[in-house]
């Protein structure tokens, strides 16, 4: 008679052990699942990539500024932190990019010169930009065709460098990359500085505009002026003052030949 009462506590103990084992198993499984979820979650990419399209008119240029917001004060644009590459046809155009060394946060300037040629000249040039996230959030502004732009047009938003009306100097830039034949007489930083000055109505060299507007590989050479026709001889015979020019004969000599 004593065995029956003892059976119930034993069953409860066994059931309790099973519940604990199940709970432990469930807890272990949950921990494993959480660990797998954390392991499978991809880390945040260290870089961001986007595309910029520039469309300057033939024999003109376009300028883009890539500024970054929210970066640490010591962060600067370098050749490893920012890369600009052409994506697609390029033709005979010229691309130059430089980092700005002035205060105001990390930023870079990119200039594209449209040089018409017999090559596959695209209407739009797409650039693939890759930047480290530590530079901050990118803000892109651009302007095209400064040489045909009206002087009374509003000041472009990209003209915000702290220059106080003074032209941008090549020494205030660091070269990043370039593609295509360079402009005659202008290195990368010099070409970028001149392009910024032209876009922002700051003093720039007239030779830079000539290099942009007349440097196309497919431009027609100047047509030489026609040479004047030779002066006909004076008089009929050499003794009468006739001096035959090349391709001409004295009239008297021609008459004598015809009479023969």
Portion in beta strands = 15-25%
Strand element count: 8
Task: Catalogue the unreliable spans.
Answer: 1-41, 215-223
Mean pLDDT: 79
- The tally of helices reads 4
Strand arrangement within the widest β-sheet reads: 7-2-5-4-8
Radius of gyration: 39 Å
Quickly describe the structure.
The chain has 260 residues and is of the alpha+beta class. The chain has four helices and eight strands.
Q: What does it look like?
A:
The protein is of the alpha+beta class and 260 residues long. It has a domain of 148 residues. Helix content is 26%, strand content 23%. The strands form two sheets. Strands 7-2-5-4-8 form a five-stranded antiparallel sheet, with helices on one face. A three-stranded antiparallel sheet has the order 1-6-3, with no helix packed on it. Strand 4 and strand 5 form a beta hairpin. The chain is elongated, with a radius of gyration of 39 Å.
Break the fold down into its secondary structure elements and pairings:
Blueprint: H1 3-40, E1 47-54, E2 60-69, E3 82-86, E4 94-100, E5 107-114, E6 125-132, E7 137-144, E8 173-179, H2 188-199, H3 206-213, H4 251-259
Antiparallel strand pairs: 1-6, 2-5, 2-7, 3-6, 4-5, 4-8
Key terms:
elongated, 4 helices, five-stranded antiparallel β-sheet, 260 residues, 23% strand, disordered N terminus
